Amino acid sequence: MRKKQAAIIALTCGIAIFVLKLFAFFVSNSVALLSDALESIINILASGMMFVSISISEKDPDQSHNYGHQKIEDISCLLEGVLIIIAALFIIITAFERLSDVGYLLELNLGIVISVFATSLNLAVSLLLLNTAKKTGSNALEGDSKHLMADVLSSIGVWVGLIIGQIIGLDYMDSLLAFVAAIFIVKMGVGLVWKSSHSLMDQSCSDEEKIISDILKQHDYRFIDFHNLKTRRSGSIVFAELHLSVASSLSVKEAHDLNDHLEADIKAVCPNIDLTIHVEPS
After folding, report:
1. Measured between alpha carbons, how far is 219 from 39 in angstroms, rounded to an integer?
2. Residue-level pLDDT at 32
């Protein structure tokens, strides 16, 4: 599945999930389910931002952006992480407020059933985005996938808290479980911020460097050595460059053909690598 198709599915389902969760609040009058529905608004905004970033990242390079627009996916992933942390803080604040509000739990059976259905849809979209992100190397899709997964975890915390609170009469149980869910959600958000920050700082790509080195070593009889291998990631594209020392007796055409052959072998293994080889005589 293409990145843009996955983003459209996420945005459309996000709106449907918000409507379902809002309906769950109306039939149950539960503040817990209302907070769960309000959190979905952030999901819709995040999915919309992801769709815009992917649309921009797929534009061809131009005079203002010679290396393309893929870096916006890293920015989107960073903002997704921030939104996840904000959502977790909202859960914590709401949980604190509920600690001093006893007896607010109502008959929630129908509301919880609707919420379970909405969250199941959320989980399916999250897994779809994660699978597409792994295939395309999209940080924006991965960020939105983890954002939706955080919403799933918080929803489960709400259900468990409400159900246990009704069964054993502990009104504060849902608040305690909300705190636990918020901790996991914060950890997920911080992880996204950390990863996207490293991408924006042009951190080297160790996995791709190993692939390039291994392939070049298979052809080391055709050149003298390679050095100054550098890599950086921009969205789903890895830009790489290296210096290749060849025999001074090689003609320009022979050196060019060697370059083409090496680049083709590397792209066959990692098609997302944009490789530049600088040939120099020994």
Report:
1. 54
2. 67
280 close to 243: Cβ distance less than 8 angstroms: yes
Task: Pull the structure tokens for residue 2.
Answer: 């293409």
E strand or H helix that includes residue 244: strand 237-246
Among 30-34, 117-121, 124-128, 180-184, the minimum mean pLDDT is found in 30-34
pLDDT digits (tens, 9 = 90+) for 259-275: 898 999 999 888 889 89
* Banded pLDDT at 174 (limits 50, 70, 90): low
Correct CATH for 206-281 of 3.30.70.1350, 1.10.510.10, 1.10.10.10, 1.10.760.10: 3.30.70.1350
Q: Give residue for tokens 């008959």.
A: 107
Helix (H), strand (E), coil (C) string for 3-47: HHHHHHHHHHHHHHHHHHHHHHHHHHCCHHHHHHHHHHHHHHHHH
pLDDT of residue 248: 85
Residue 103 has pLDDT above 60, yes or no: no
Look up the CATH architecture of domain 3-200. Up-down Bundle (1.20)
For β-strands 225-234 and 273-281, DSSP reports them as unpaired
- CA–CA separation, 264 vs 212, rounded Å? 11
Rounded to an integer, what distance in angstroms lies between the CA atom of residue 214 and that of residue 143? 31
Q: Are 6 and 129 in contact (CB under 8 A)?
A: yes
Q: Detail the DSSP E strand segments found in the chain.
A: 225-234, 237-246, 273-281
pTM score: 0.64
Interatomic CA distance for residues 67 and 63, integer angstroms: 9
Task: Record the tokens describing residue 105, joined without a space.
Answer: 């739990």
When the pLDDT of each residue in the chain is averaged and rounded to a whole number, the result is: 81
Q: Strand, helix or coil at 203?
A: coil
